[in-house]
Amino acid sequence: MAIRPDGTVVGSLSDGCLEQQLVADVAAASGPSVRRYGKGSALIDFRLPCGGGLDILIDPSPDRAACRDTVALLDCREPAGLALPENIYLPTRRYLPALRIHAFGVDPELSALDRLALVMNVPMVCMRPESLSLGQAPDMASPDRWTATILLFHDHEWEGAILHHALRGGSFYVGAQGGAKAREDRLSRLRAAGVAEEDLARIRGPVGVTPSARTPNALALSVLSEIVFEYDRIHPHF
């Protein structure tokens, strides 16, 4: 969370009451320090609604150059680390590039996923058959480690070249919709094309956190939930 000189808060740590306390504490701080808020804190007149406690690093004069360098690495889709002053608990905060999604397919499923990703503020590239060439890889860079690839086709002939393209990259999630027969045929075609078994094992099917979604919106929610969960699993969280 950041606090601008005028007291404007960017980000959040709680439900609002903690943020306002931090605005005052940052303004009064003379240097970096770790303070306890909530349970176990010396501030007996301030309690968190959940009844828990947080140890928070307050830094009134952060290393702006280091912050800019960290942001620059993330913008280049590279992981980054930011050294934290006066922090015996966490000397370095690790960051990963933001989640992205490469989605290929047709409506209504593709549009439903696009709408939901927009609400979740997850950047997504959508490609439909009119912007693809059958049997050829999409005209874009292969996905990196922090990009998910999802195929939402009814005509599965479009899938081969796209899956080849996705598997060449480091995509943490590669999924394709389709029933049991479609999944079997998909793997058979890719196996015949020389795709290694370890790569075939990366392809998820069925997709989503629910075994069967009956509407495009339900499928979109199911798929996005699975993608976000898998991205969260590779995040260092410290």
From TrEMBL:
Residues annotated as domain XdhC Rossmann: 104-227
Pfam families in UniProt: XdhC_C, XdhC_CoxI
Record InterPro entries: MoCofactor_Util/Proc, XdhC_CoxI, XdhC_Rossmann_dom
Domain XdhC- CoxI: 1-38
Protein name: XdhC Rossmann domain-containing protein
